[in-house]
Amino acid sequence: MSWKRGAYPEFTLEDAVAVLFMLQNPTGRKAISEALNLGEGSVRTLLRKLGNIEAISSAQRGHSLNRRGMELLEGISRHFSEARRIGKIEGHPAFALTVREPGEFKSIELRDEAIRFFAKGAMILVVKEGEPVFPEDGRPLSETMPELAERVKEAFRLEDGELVVITWAEKEADAMKSAYHVALSLKGEVLPEEIKSLVR
């Protein structure tokens, strides 16, 4: 048996980013553990590290971002949004987020990234005239999946040129984290240094 296993945090940068978005409201350790499908020990370690960089306050009702934490979250939010639940695709929970100024990208590579991160599937769309469209042929999502297109438009204030990342997976946590994974594969370089330090 490996006695060292406990020494290594079992969480990823995707978990750290998800927790920052979650802690906009006071949240308990158990709720974080369930939402991210993480062990309580890993959640404890992650919260301790967030405490070490003075990003959170802890109270009876749970943990929440303090002013420093909100500044860090704003630094992330300038590049991509919170992942939001947008119903189901192929019977699986689906999440979406938007990425600002995505730069050059290949849809197929981003889809592969999501699937490598436990997604069952992913869609990469670009916003044109307020509509999410498939970049390969400019076809609006509303043509093939009108309900999904509506849910995306309800969840986000879409701005032209943004990327919309939609991912789905067997587990909610995997659907959410694979969306963050795609955002981080595009924007990981520009994350605040303190956030990157959480997983070192």
Give a topology summary:
Blueprint: H1 13-22, H2 29-36, H3 40-52, E1 56-59, E2 62-65, H4 67-77, E3 84-89, E4 92-99, H5 107-116, E5 121-128, E6 131-133, H6 141-144, H7 146-155, E7 163-168, H8 172-187, H9 193-197
Antiparallel strand pairs: 1-2, 3-4, 4-7, 5-6, 5-7
Helix pairs in contact: 1-8, 2-3, 5-8
How would you sum up this structure, described in words?
The structure is a single chain. This protein has helices at about 15-20, 30-35, 40-50, 65-75, 105-115, 140-145, 145-155, 170-185, 195, and strands at about 55-60, 60-65, 85-90, 90-100, 120-130, 130-135, 165-170. The chain has about 200 residues and is of the alpha+beta class. The chain folds into two domains: about 10-75, Orthogonal Bundle (Arc Repressor Mutant, subunit A), CATH 1.10.10; about 85-190, GAD-like domain (Gyrase A, domain 2, 2-Layer Sandwich). A hairpin with a 2-residue loop joins strand 1 and strand 2. Helix 2 crosses helix 3 (about 40-50) and helix 5 (about 105-115) packs across helix 8 (about 170-185).
Number of helical runs?
9
Percent range of helical residues: 40-55%
Shape: globular
The helix/strand series, from N terminus to C terminus, equals HHHEEHEEHEEHHEHH
Query: Strand-residue fraction?
Result: 15-25%
Strand order of the largest sheet: 3-4-7-5-6
- Unreliable stretches covering 5 or more consecutive residues: 1-7
- Total domain count: 2
Instruction: Specify the biggest β-sheet.
Output: 5 strands, antiparallel
Count of DSSP E strands? 7
GO molecular function: aminoacyl-tRNA ligase activity; ATP binding
Protein name: DUF4443 domain-containing protein
InterPro entries: DUF4443, GAD-like_sf, PH0730-like_N, WH-like_DNA-bd_sf, WH_DNA-bd_sf
Domain PH0730-like N-terminal: 12-70
